[in-house]
Design a protein that fits this description.
This protein has 2 helices and 7 strands. By secondary structure, the chain is an alpha+beta fold. The chain has a 7-stranded antiparallel beta sheet with strand order 1-7-6-5-4-3-2, with helices on one face. Strand 3 and strand 4 form a beta hairpin.
């Protein structure tokens, strides 16, 4: 078996795990940090194995859609899902800007608490991807980390606000 390219983001938040979990799972809080610099609209969030999180992002007259299917929800320590680009009817479709982008990414987010601080780890790995998709994902990893880091900064600010 070959090693798959894996994006790993580790972040420590000065907030208890229950609050970080809430920021990841509350449809009122998610749009405040997920999808930075765009309007994020949560169309559905069914937090259970087999449940869907359907999210639309809008900017400058454009829109993109993501379809997330949860495979594991272990409150408040672990979320696992299959993450895909979708069309306006929530069907999984190829990424319009990158033909070889993986159709599905396996996403795992874990939350560990110590001394009222939470360490979060997010991993993103292509799921059932072909060689071209693996190469595309691998080449894009640096840019993805930068995008996620902006969202993590917004999440950190939100957590400070929620604790004030």
């Amino acid at each position: 078996m070959r090693d798959l390219p894996t994006l790993v983001i580790d972040r420590e938040f000065d907030a208890p795990r229950a609050l970080v979990w809430r920021a990841w799972t509350d449809p009122e809080l998610l749009p405040r940090w997920y999808g930075p610099r765009v309007e994020t609209i949560i169309h559905q969030l069914d937090l259970k194995p087999g449940g869907l999180w359907l999210v639309e992002m809008r900017w400058n007259g454009n829109a993109s859609y993501q379809r997330v299917e949860y495979t594991e929800v272990t409150r408040p320590e672990r979320l696992v899902w299959l993450h895909s680009v979708a069309d306006g009817q929530w069907n999984v479709v190829p990424e319009p800007m990158m033909a070889d982008w993986p159709r599905v990414l396996l996403t795992t987010v874990t939350f560990e608490e110590a001394d009222q601080r939470t360490t979060m780890r997010l991993t993103w790995v292509p799921h059932e991807a072909n060689d071209a998709e693996l190469a595309c994902f691998s080449a894009a990893m640096e840019g993805m980390g930068k995008g996620w880091s902006v969202g993590m900064e917004l999440l950190a600010e939100l957590l400070v606000e929620l604790q004030a």
